Amino acid sequence: MASNRIAAGTGIEGLDSNQLTGPRGIFVDVNLDLYVADGDNNRVQLYQSGEPNGITVAGSTSLTPTITLRLPTGVILDAEKYLFIVDLGNDRIVASGLNGFRCLVGCYVKGVKSNQLNNPFSLSFDRSGNLFVADQINSRIQKFVLMNDSF
């Protein structure tokens, strides 16, 4: 039998730094830090390895709020340590950069065109740095080739 423990949250929903409400997506980086798309709290929490309290790194309750999220469902860190977030409620993908966050795909316009999303749910990168997004309502997986000036 495997042993287990709670890695983030208390088991009781809430908005405090040690609580989550409706966590959807997670990502663990090479330092064993845990990023959580805390969907119903409209934020992304960073739980540094071994720490019970999270730090809001994206969302209106972060220390430097540069992005407002609505039901984030996916989160991933790329090789250059840029944070990518699926912002389901705003039908977009946002990414961190040198000057805060910015929209990469969707950008508040829901739709079926190749540069639009409708209820994006998760994302991933391949070895070449291409971004793949599960575009739920459009019943497709979108592939985006990101340019260096995307950040």
TrEMBL record:
<dbReference type="Pfam" id="PF01436">
    <property type="entry name" value="NHL"/>
</dbReference>
<keyword id="KW-0325">Glycoprotein</keyword>
<keyword id="KW-0732">Signal</keyword>
<protein>
    <recommendedName>
        <fullName>NHL repeat containing protein-like protein</fullName>
    </recommendedName>
</protein>
<keyword id="KW-0677">Repeat</keyword>
<dbReference type="InterPro" id="IPR001258">
    <property type="entry name" value="NHL_repeat"/>
</dbReference>
<dbReference type="InterPro" id="IPR011042">
    <property type="entry name" value="6-blade_b-propeller_TolB-like"/>
</dbReference>
<dbReference type="GO" id="GO:0005576">
    <property type="term" value="C:extracellular region"/>
</dbReference>
<feature type="repeat" description="NHL">
    <location>
        <begin position="19"/>
        <end position="50"/>
    </location>
</feature>
